[in-house]
Design goal:
With about 70 residues, the chain is of the alpha/beta class. It has 3 helices and 3 strands; from the N terminus they run βαβαβα. The longest helix has 13 residues.
Length: about 70
């Protein structure tokens, strides 16, 4: 489902992609505290689906994920 609204003015929309939940939560929290919108994905395929639905200004991606790793996703 693609229902992402534009990020607030001055904020950036960042997609955090990591198979480790704690890493996703930590980065998303830090980004939100800095005023940015954080989206999260747990895998390469999930990241690609997210990018079909919403434009992101930045993607922070783990390169060593099981299945489709960060390099394959890029």
């Amino acid at each position: 489902m693609c229902d992402a609204l534009p990020a607030p003015r001055g904020a950036r929309r960042v997609l955090v992609v990591d198979d480790v939940e704690m890493n996703r939560r930590l980065l998303a929290t830090l980004l939100r505290l800095d005023g940015h919108e954080a989206m999260v994905a747990a895998s390469g395929p999930e990241a690609l689906t997210s990018l079909e639905c919403a434009r992101c200004d930045l993607v922070l991606m783990d390169l060593h994920m099981p299945g489709m790793d960060g390099i394959a996703t890029l």
